[in-house]
Amino acid sequence: MIDRRGSKGRLGLTDKDNSPVKTQLQWGGRFGTGPAEVMQAINASISFDAKLWRQDIAGSQAHAAMLAKQGIITPADQAAIREGLEAIAAEIEAGTFHFSESLEDIHTNIEVRLTERIGEAARRLHTARSRNDQVATDFRLWVRNAIDGVLVQIHGLMKTLSERAVEHAATVMPGFTHLQTAQPVTFGHHLLAYVEMLARDAGRLKDARARLNECPLGSAALAGTSFPIDRFATAEALGFARPTANSLDSVSDRDFALEFLSALSICAMHLSRFSEEIIIWCSSPYKLIELSDAFTTGSSIMPQKRNPDAAELAKAKTGRIFGALIGLLTVMKGLPMAYAKDMQEDKEPVFDAVAAISLCLTAMDGMVRDMKANKDRMEALAGSGFSTATDLADWLVRVLKMPFRDAHHTTGQLVRLAEGKNCDLSELILSDMQSIEPRITAEIFEVLTVQASVASRTSYGGTAPINVAKQAAVWLESLA
Ligand code: ARG
Question: What is the pLDDT of residues 178-189, one digit of tens each?
Fold first, then answer.
């Protein structure tokens, strides 16, 4: 709950205890009056950065422990700070903590509450620290945690896809290029293509995580500090690999958020492609798959309808995620070092993008788990549109030793012949085929079925059921 009330009914100009704002402001010393109402409204971030409370408390605990170890504060002060912060964490957890807009952000809200609880010692916590390195640390910790969460979800979806790929290793479906029937492929192979994409997404997130994992704490406002702090100790306490090396860069860098959003954007793009395929596959003219009741909706007017809303929204949410990336890139563009309040605009897009990708990954996992392949329909469509023409051409090359270009031409003539007779290649009679190429034998019909077509695609990475079964097993093992 965030308090925006004030005495005289003015928005947030006083705090919950109705004392003038000035006494609450951490920087109030040189100010005569409090901020204008709109100043507070534009300046405050507590409505969204309250989300960082765990990270803020963890950062403060590490900082206080280090200050005590270095003899900068007393062990007694540190103990009071530790217990005070633990109590505040319990309050927030229990929902009894009072967040106040007049206290601007999560850092000040917690520090003021700590002062209320433990007095003097709390006022020593901010030694050798600034909100600039504090927020950079909190946000890195939050993003690191979010990366771990998204990675778990991506791995979950990869596993679901691999399981369905095992099941459909030999299920034949039409493969498309230009969204025109091209060659038969296996459904399992198609699903594993998304496993590859998601694996790259996971790789990008892991790369970003490794680069992110340096601790800005102790960079203070921008220049470092004159106190004998131990930044390696705080970095280690917070699970960072090392402290950041340049205090100016530390407080002004948001690359970690941008890299995260870039990786999420690419992942969202992948999910949008899959979503669109699902939408096409389950559309009435295709009917390659059926989605479950759990992941579709009905129409309020057309009783027969089953709409793929989850897929549509998973596709559409890509807009938010790209928007978050472009938004933050724009905030950072042309920003002089070091910290500027512009950077407070970094959080909401990241929070929103994480919520969106998380929903999309969960919905996608459910859709994939539940979707039913219409095998007969898949096979029928896989064989339509002369999809085994390449197999025919390959036979001419292999058996008659024709150069591929000539085989391509001859096959084209055979396709034209079949088109004229309104039949499929496999339905042509041998003598008709021989009128175009006399050396063709009945043996050619063996390669014209969709099953034979996919079974022959055994080249590394090809669509043959034997390949798909093997590759799905490799994925399942690595994801176990
Ligand atoms: N709420 C601020 C942010 O998110 C914290 C840092 C404030 N620093 C400052 N110098 N005013 O960026």
Answer: 999 999 999 999
User: How far apart are alpha carbons 344 and 335 in whole angstroms?
Assistant: 13
Name residues whose C-beta falls within 8 Å of residue 203's C-beta, 6 or more positions apart in sequence. none
- How far, in Å, CA of 182 to CA of 447, rounded? 16
Give, for ligand 1, the residue of 39, 105, 133 to mutate: max count of ligand atoms closer than 8 Å to Cβ. 105
Q: How many CA atoms lie within 13 A of 333 on its CB side?
A: 6
Query: Is 133 in contact with 219 (CB distance < 8 Å)?
Result: yes
Q: Among residues 283, 299, 435, 478, which one is catalytic?
A: 299
Compute the distance between CA of residue 219 and CA of residue 277 in angstroms, rounded to an integer.
49
Confidence band of 296 (pLDDT split at 50, 70, 90) = confident
Q: How confident is the model at residue 264 (pLDDT cuts 50, 70, 90)?
A: very high
CA angle, 120 as apex, 114 and 122 as ends, to 5°?
Answer: 35
Residue 7 a catalytic site member: no
Task: Please tell me the predicted confidence (pLDDT) of residue 3.
Answer: 54
Residue whose CB lies within 8 A of the most ligand 1 atoms, among 132, 134, 250, for a mutation test: 132
* Active-site residue flag, 478: no
Single out the residue of 120, 102, 115, 84 nearest to residue 19, CA to CA.
102
pTM for the model stands at: 0.91
The pLDDT tens digits of the residues spanning 209-229 come to: 999 999 999 999 999 999 999
